[in-house]
Amino acid sequence: MHAFLSWLTSHRYAVGISALLVLLLGKFLSPLFLYNVPLGYDPGMYRYLFLQYAESIKHFSMPELSPWASEYPPGLFLLASPFLIVGLPVDALIGWIWNIFPIILICTFAWVMYKREGKAVGVCILLMGLLSQAYYDGFFAMYFKAYASLLFTVLTYHFAQKLSIWFIPCALAAVMIHQQTGLILTLSLGIWWLLSIKSHWKDTVFRRLTFALGVAGIIAFIWYLPQWERAIWSPLKSIIFLRGDAAPPGAFPGATFYVRTMGVVLLLGVFGMVLSFTRERGSLWQLSVLVCAVFIIFKLVFYRRFYLQLDFFLMPFAAISLVWIWRNVSTHWARGLLLLVLIAQASIGFKAVQIRTPRFGARELLQITSLPDNIEYDAVVIALENVSGAWLRGWLPYHRIGAPGLFDYPDWSYEVWEVFIDGKQSERKELLAELKGPVYFLLSPTFAKFYGERGNRIIADPCLRLVPDAPLLHSVCSEG
């Protein structure tokens, strides 16, 4: 027994890393086996854009996209295109690759913190990734762009602190992949760089990197110029004018949910921030936390989406405080109490993870994938609610797809959609006459659940006929 304890003590870091990696693999890979369907709100959007960019890059061009698709920064899709071109299945990207991506990100973060703060903090970063509910919620919602951008942000900060030229391409990649994370990086890096000018300007390397950073900023500006109105100016106006209760909060739960489900992690993070200010001030990691906090405290547009980044950038401080507490509390009972608190936090997080289930089922996805067998190659397929529309877009990438409020076709306002659903048959016939080509409407379980008895008016309309062996209504009142 003594020999085993001696071995365990001498190999504690290797044992801890191995155990945490096994638990992380179990947490993030389990949805692959529990649900036979990709995660998230819009995996269909990702699937569609991955295919569109790969097909265009294959022919040395950029895809011609609808305005809604242009709102997605192209960085992630361009980076993925070479892999798709050489044969990687697109469904792997939104399947098992996505499931291991959060593990790759947290391991990269742990490595960077190990280099900066030591082995113990690096190991504790893995623990924070395991305990964090916000980190899991972002994964379950498939915020692919955010996680990819965070990966490059971590590398940017690592190289910037070493004044390595590699921070420039990493920063560009982060900005070009995700607007929100790119904004956090731009503000944090910009403030940090300005604070560093006084003490580093005489350094030739620093001056050269300052020039390179300016060039990178110009490149990023040019990169977003084609979609300036929808990708930059419109969100910027929202930040300025939509604040407080007028600001759309975003899809994340409220702050009280995270206080209940990961309060220990948040307290450790705040305490770690206080500890860090006794050693240094104005680090990139500190500034990133403060930038995220500003968006949340002042309730700027989509402020709840910043919960993910706030939690992420608090992780190293939570790890630092945990290591500090462990080293400064030497009694066995106190350390045992700390372990019990962490186990209780893990138990609460495990229960919170269980409530995360996909909104879209495997049976519904199978119905969509079988639709091409029942419709013409040039058919239009329109979802009658905005859940199925994104999935239609991804798995019917070469058909024209419509849905309320999602896409540019049909060009109906919500008021017109209400007329289509609840109006007179003559009004519905006039709207159908505006549509060109073979037109079909999807009868999804979400449609039946959302509209209930109101949906029977659509099914009974003489202009719409049920398609045998398919969840579709075919419009016989549309031109073509």
Task: Describe the protein.
The protein has 480 residues and is mostly helical. Helix content is 68%, strand content 4%. The protein folds into two domains: 16-38 and 95-354, no CATH class; 362-475. The protein contains 24 helices and five strands. It has a five-stranded mixed β-sheet with strand order 2-1-3-5-4. Helix 7 packs antiparallel against helix 8 (119-131), helix 9 packs antiparallel against helix 17 (306-328) and helix 15 packs across helix 17 (306-328).
Number of helices: 24
Span of the ends, CA to CA:
81 Å
Strand order of the largest sheet: 2-1-3-5-4
* Main beta-sheet strand count, sense and barrel state: 5 strands, mixed
Counting structural domains, the number is: 2
What key attributes describe this structure?
480 residues; mainly alpha; 2 domains; 5-stranded mixed β-sheet; 5 strands; 4% strand; globular
Topology:
Layout: H1 2-10, H2 12-34, H3 43-58, H4 67-70, H5 75-85, H6 90-93, H7 96-117, H8 119-131, H9 133-140, H10 144-161, H11 167-177, H12 179-200, H13 204-224, H14 228-241, H15 255-277, H16 284-297, H17 306-328, H18 332-354, H19 362-369, E1 380-383, H20 388-395, E2 400-402, H21 414-422, H22 425-433, E3 439-442, H23 445-451, H24 455-459, E4 464-466, E5 472-475
Parallel strand pairs: 1-2, 1-3
Antiparallel strand pairs: 3-5, 4-5
Helix pairs in contact: 2-7, 2-8, 3-5, 3-20, 7-8, 7-10, 8-17, 9-17, 10-11, 10-12, 11-12, 11-13, 12-16, 15-17, 15-18, 16-17
